[in-house]
Amino acid sequence: MIRYAFLQTLIGLYFIADNMKINFKKFPIYTSIRKDMVVEQDISFVLANGIYCNIAGVMAHSLSLRIYEADGEVELTDKEVAALKEWAELFVGLISDSIKDYIAKKQ
Protein backbone atom coordinates (compact mmCIF):
# COMPACT_ATOMS: atom_id res chain seq x y z
CA MET A 1 0.00 0.00 0.00
CA ILE A 2 2.84 2.42 0.78
CA ARG A 3 4.44 1.73 -2.61
CA TYR A 4 1.13 2.47 -4.34
CA ALA A 5 0.74 5.77 -2.47
CA PHE A 6 4.35 6.70 -3.27
CA LEU A 7 3.81 5.90 -6.95
CA GLN A 8 0.64 8.00 -6.99
CA THR A 9 2.58 10.88 -5.47
CA LEU A 10 5.31 10.59 -8.10
CA ILE A 11 2.77 10.43 -10.90
CA GLY A 12 0.93 13.43 -9.43
CA LEU A 13 4.14 15.43 -9.24
CA TYR A 14 4.93 14.53 -12.84
CA PHE A 15 1.58 15.87 -14.03
CA ILE A 16 1.92 19.02 -11.92
CA ALA A 17 5.33 19.69 -13.46
CA ASP A 18 3.79 19.64 -16.95
CA ASN A 19 1.25 22.37 -16.24
CA MET A 20 1.67 25.59 -18.16
CA LYS A 21 2.53 28.75 -16.24
CA ILE A 22 1.48 32.11 -17.67
CA ASN A 23 2.09 35.57 -16.26
CA PHE A 24 -0.92 37.61 -17.35
CA LYS A 25 0.51 40.71 -15.65
CA LYS A 26 3.40 40.68 -18.14
CA PHE A 27 1.79 39.18 -21.22
CA PRO A 28 3.12 39.72 -24.77
CA ILE A 29 0.41 41.40 -26.87
CA TYR A 30 0.67 42.04 -30.61
CA THR A 31 0.74 45.72 -31.52
CA SER A 32 -0.92 45.31 -34.93
CA ILE A 33 -2.43 42.88 -37.38
CA ARG A 34 1.05 42.31 -38.82
CA LYS A 35 2.00 40.48 -35.60
CA ASP A 36 5.60 41.59 -36.08
CA MET A 37 5.91 43.38 -32.71
CA VAL A 38 4.66 42.70 -29.20
CA VAL A 39 4.46 44.78 -26.06
CA GLU A 40 4.30 43.46 -22.54
CA GLN A 41 0.94 44.35 -20.97
CA ASP A 42 -1.09 43.51 -17.90
CA ILE A 43 -4.16 41.74 -19.31
CA SER A 44 -5.12 40.05 -16.04
CA PHE A 45 -8.16 42.24 -15.33
CA VAL A 46 -9.49 42.32 -18.90
CA LEU A 47 -9.07 38.57 -19.32
CA ALA A 48 -10.37 37.58 -15.89
CA ASN A 49 -13.34 39.94 -16.11
CA GLY A 50 -14.19 38.77 -19.63
CA ILE A 51 -14.19 35.14 -18.55
CA TYR A 52 -16.08 35.93 -15.32
CA CYS A 53 -18.82 37.88 -17.12
CA ASN A 54 -19.27 35.69 -20.20
CA ILE A 55 -18.47 32.05 -19.40
CA ALA A 56 -20.62 29.82 -17.22
CA GLY A 57 -19.22 27.06 -15.06
CA VAL A 58 -17.04 26.34 -12.07
CA MET A 59 -13.80 26.09 -14.06
CA ALA A 60 -14.37 29.51 -15.66
CA HIS A 61 -15.23 31.08 -12.32
CA SER A 62 -12.22 29.54 -10.60
CA LEU A 63 -9.79 30.40 -13.38
CA SER A 64 -11.02 33.98 -13.68
CA LEU A 65 -10.45 34.54 -9.96
CA ARG A 66 -6.99 32.94 -10.06
CA ILE A 67 -5.99 35.14 -13.01
CA TYR A 68 -7.37 38.28 -11.35
CA GLU A 69 -5.80 37.63 -7.93
CA ALA A 70 -2.40 36.40 -9.14
CA ASP A 71 0.69 38.49 -8.49
CA GLY A 72 2.67 36.68 -11.16
CA GLU A 73 2.40 33.36 -12.93
CA VAL A 74 -0.81 31.35 -12.96
CA GLU A 75 -0.42 27.59 -13.26
CA LEU A 76 -2.91 26.11 -15.73
CA THR A 77 -3.87 22.48 -16.24
CA ASP A 78 -4.10 21.09 -19.76
CA LYS A 79 -7.89 21.33 -19.50
CA GLU A 80 -7.68 25.01 -18.52
CA VAL A 81 -5.23 25.74 -21.35
CA ALA A 82 -7.61 24.15 -23.87
CA ALA A 83 -10.52 26.15 -22.45
CA LEU A 84 -8.50 29.38 -22.52
CA LYS A 85 -7.69 28.84 -26.20
CA GLU A 86 -11.39 28.38 -26.89
CA TRP A 87 -12.45 31.35 -24.76
CA ALA A 88 -9.86 33.60 -26.42
CA GLU A 89 -12.28 33.92 -29.34
CA LEU A 90 -14.46 36.17 -27.14
CA PHE A 91 -11.84 38.92 -27.09
CA VAL A 92 -10.69 41.43 -29.69
CA GLY A 93 -8.26 40.19 -32.31
CA LEU A 94 -5.07 41.46 -30.69
CA ILE A 95 -5.79 39.70 -27.39
CA SER A 96 -7.30 36.60 -28.98
CA ASP A 97 -4.40 36.02 -31.40
CA SER A 98 -1.81 36.87 -28.75
CA ILE A 99 -3.25 34.29 -26.33
CA LYS A 100 -3.63 31.54 -28.92
CA ASP A 101 -0.16 32.09 -30.41
CA TYR A 102 1.47 32.30 -26.96
CA ILE A 103 -0.08 28.98 -25.93
CA ALA A 104 0.90 27.35 -29.23
CA LYS A 105 4.53 28.40 -28.73
CA LYS A 106 4.64 27.13 -25.14
CA GLN A 107 3.10 23.71 -25.89
Structure notes:
- The structure is a single chain.
- This protein has 107 residues and is an alpha+beta fold.
- The chain has one domain.
- It contains five helices and four strands, in the order H-E-E-E-H-H-E-H-H.
- The protein has helices at residues 2-17, 44-54, 58-69, 78-87, 93-106; strands spanning 20-23, 27-30, 38-41, 73-76.
- A two-stranded antiparallel ribbon has the order 1-4.
- Strand 2 (27-30) and strand 3 (38-41) form a beta hairpin.
- The model has no long low-confidence stretch (mean pLDDT 88).
For the structure shown, list the relevant keywords:
two-stranded antiparallel ribbon, alpha+beta, 5 helices, 107 residues
Q: What characteristic shape results from the CA principal axes?
A: globular
Mean residue pLDDT: 88
What kind of sheet is the major sheet?
2 strands, antiparallel
Helix content: 55-70%
Low-confidence sequence ranges = none
Put the structure in a nutshell.
By secondary structure, the chain is α+β, with helices and mostly antiparallel strands. The protein has 5 helices and 4 strands, in the order αβββααβαα.
Record the SSE blueprint:
Blueprint: H1 2-17, E1 20-23, E2 27-30, E3 38-41, H2 44-54, H3 58-69, E4 73-76, H4 78-87, H5 93-106
Antiparallel strand pairs: 1-4, 2-3
